[in-house]
Amino acid sequence: MKTSEIIASDLFSSDLAPTTPKGKYFSVDEIRELFPILHQEVNGSPLVYLDNAATTQKPLAVIEALTAYYELDNANIHRGAHTLAARATEYYEKTRVSVKEFINAPSEEQVIFTKGTTESINLVASTYGREFIGKGDEIIISTMEHHSNIVPWQMLCQATGAVLKVIPITDAGEIIMEEFEKMLSTKTKFVSVVHVSNALGTVNPVKEIIDKAHAVGAKVLVDGAQSTSHLSVDVQSLDCDFLAFSAHKLYGPTGLGVLYGKRDLLEAMPPYQGGGEMIKEVDFAGTTYNDIPFKFEAGTPNIADVIAFQKALEFFQIIGRENIHSHEQELLTYATDKLSTINGFIPVGTAKEKVSVLSFLINGMHPFDVGMMLDAGGIAVRTGHHCTQPLMKRFGIEGTVRASFSVYNTKNEIDTLYQWVSRIAKRKN
Ligand code: C6P
């Protein structure tokens, strides 16, 4: 009997590389072989995919796991008594255990599947927020938040009369810790902060932020959308109260995310949505809710994508987080050094600690035009405000050109980016 699990696992069993003390070593070319989408031409040139902060590409094992699930195992989970339902449930719950290990959560019950980082943050704002935050209480975020970590808190403030405070940043794009400390008081009930800025690449000192917030009794949510793919994120050593992230930035499928929470908080929070799966017993006189995590997973969940996400987590494990991080850091340094030699190149975000994102402007040119010209050469970058309009305002700009690197990118690709950016910049500088 074949199952989607066996079929997709086969894809990683190849002996591509020798085993080293750090784990298996793969060359970039071998890693690229695992990503079918990379091997194509765009506008007559080989694709250079540098939009990884928006979404990473998917290894073949993830794609095949999706198809194989629908070909072999498709069934609804947690309810049917038949074999397919049992199998689908087993694989779905197996991914939950893998996520638990990935972030070092104390238990898999503290791992809730959502649609993405956005939904995870909205869940906390709507449930924890509505239950435990009231008039005059203060919520702190930073200037460099993604709209997903601004708007849900604004909505909560509108509904409750709580007050939103914003930590300022330096010209380099770093949080000003002294200002943060000045904002903290017994009125501070919640701090929600991005671990790695999607627009600047800044790595924020989240451990320090968490410790300082806890000292005044506030709870902390870490937006890990951009950090979980580059850094080791250990929820127990960080001691964060909540962590939100998306599978699609981690080589996994779109439309799937994770919310981690501390057990006592998740248990105290009311449900997010009502429906099947989140109940223990329903009676017209009243309903009792299910235990965590199911209390927060109303309705039929995204079964196929959860099961396929397992393969993305295995990819991470096989390549090794350290190897991924060091390769990406090498690319970031190489790209920053090389593009900085171009006349008219203006970097945006020059924090001491950064990962994988190079945001820039070309003097005299609109970022959108630069992006269009790069696309003509097969180079995919993101241009615009990157869903961080208040951050762009802070820098007095409309947007940037953003190149973001991943484990499958090469120095040759950065050379191509350099050649195109040089050519474009020469027109105006
Ligand atoms: N940033 C980018 O191109 P979702 O869309 O729910 O998967 O993730 C939202 C989100 C939240 N926080 C941060 C720091 C993010 O970077 C993102 C997504 C993408 O930068 C799309 S706007």
Percent in helix: 25-40%
Our Rg estimate from Cα atoms comes to 22 Å
| CATH H-tier superfamily of the largest domain | Type I PLP-dependent aspartate aminotransferase-like (Major domain)
Query: Looking across the biggest beta sheet, what order are the strands in?
Result: 6-12-11-10-9-7-8
Number of strands: 19
Structural class, by secondary structure, is alpha/beta
In short:
This protein has 429 residues and is of the alpha/beta class.
Describe this protein's structure.
- This protein is an alpha/beta fold.
- It folds into 2 domains: 35-50 and 321-428, Aspartate Aminotransferase, domain 1, CATH 3.90.1150; 67-316, Aspartate Aminotransferase, domain 2 (3-Layer(aba) Sandwich).
- Helix content is 40%, strand content 17%.
- The strands form 6 sheets. Strands 6-12-11-10-9-7-8 form a 7-stranded mixed β-sheet, sandwiched between helices. Strands 15-16-19-18 form a 4-stranded antiparallel β-sheet, with helices on one face.
- The radius of gyration is 22 Å and the shape is globular.
- The model is unreliable at 14-22 (pLDDT under 50).
- The structure holds ligand C6P.
- Ligand C6P binds at residues 53-54, 116-118, 146, 148-149, 194, 198, 223, 225-226, 246, 382, 386-387.
